[in-house]
Design brief:
This protein is mainly alpha-helical. The chain is built from 8 helices and no strands.
Length: 191
């Protein structure tokens, strides 16, 4: 949850990577990263992971890097441990895990440096941009709930129940807003 909120917060910064002129370049870069699965060379995958982390370092997004590692390392360690104990640990497994982190960090890079307005302006209204807009709105709701709770003295700590309450509260608010939007559409004659 923290990694998504941090990426959302980074969208509103002004760094050299947030420049609208770099939008097409970032999309091409993301397509190149996605196509690396076709060429299984761990050195190239590691190079792109380092490039993604370096670009985040260049805009001082240290928290985003830290959160991405905190999200990615525990499941990766479990997978490696299970494969090692079962005797199925192969270079392909390690490559796939490295590729997963490379894709993850670079998606975070593009998401955190591309405001949703840029995506909408360049790509127009289509199912992809509407999906991204919906995800953006969900994260915005989650951010608002977290900030509201923090101003009232809430500390999440390590208790999973506290995090569940935040997600539940955000979902409740989104359902209420969707209900209001539905009523507004029906009042205008939409079915």
């Amino acid at each position: 949850m923290a990694v998504i909120v941090e990426a959302y917060r980074n969208q509103y910064r002004t760094t050299w990577l947030h420049n609208e002129k770099l939008f097409i370049l970032k999309i091409v870069y993301l397509v190149v990263v996605a196509s690396l699965i076709l060429y299984p060379d761990p050195r190239i995958i590691l190079l792109f992971a380092i490039i993604g982390v370096s670009l985040l370092v260049s805009i001082k997004s240290f928290r985003l890097i830290m959160y991405s590692l905190l999200v990615y390392i525990p499941p990766t360690a479990i997978i490696l441990l299970i494969d090692y104990v079962a005797g199925t640990l192969t270079p392909r497994v390690i490559y796939t895990l490295l590729y997963g982190y490379t894709g993850f960090i670079n998606i975070l890079l593009v998401y955190s440096t591309t405001p949703i307005q840029q995506i909408y302006r360049y790509m127009g209204r289509n199912p992809l941009t509407l999906s991204l807009l919906m995800i953006h709105n969900v994260v915005a709701e989650l951010w608002e709930v977290i900030e509201s709770k923090k101003t009232r003295g809430w500390e999440p700590g390590w208790n999973p129940y506290n995090h569940f309450l935040i997600v539940f509260e955000a979902l409740r608010i989104m359902i209420l807003r969707l209900d209001a939007i539905t009523i507004a559409f029906k009042a205008r004659g939409a079915e």
